[in-house]
């Protein structure tokens, strides 16, 4: 069976590591510290950490997050490869969306 990250990388033309998941225990720690996550801004349907998410076809760098986010907390585990736009592009967008 082919790992999901390999399948998604081929589908979207990105790196395998761009689809690595955040470990569930890390998500649990974030929720325990900051409260419920209202938006997963870089997710796939099968790994979003909450009901509201932005997938690669919608591209969180081009979508307004506020109308989608259900709480004050947005989670982002962006793709790190340059092919995906580079980490700094996603961090700039997160800073922009934070206000």
Strand order of the largest sheet: 1-2
Which structural class matches the secondary elements?
Answer: mainly alpha
- Low-pLDDT runs: none
Task: Determine the fraction of residues in helical runs and give it as a percent range.
Answer: 25-40%
| Sheet with most strands | 2 strands, parallel
What overall geometry do the principal axes of the alpha carbons give?
globular
Helix tally? 3
So what's the oligomer here? single chain
Number of strands: 2
Mean pLDDT: 89
Notes on the structure:
The protein has 99 residues and is mostly helical. The chain is 32% helix and 7% strand. It has a two-stranded parallel sheet. The model has no long low-confidence stretch (mean pLDDT 89).
From the structure above, extract its key features:
mainly alpha, 7% strand
Helix and strand arrangement:
Layout: H1 4-12, H2 24-34, E1 37-40, E2 73-75, H3 87-98
Parallel strand pairs: 1-2
Short description:
This protein has 99 residues and is mainly alpha-helical. The chain is 32% helix and 7% strand. It is built from three helices and two strands, in the order ααββα.
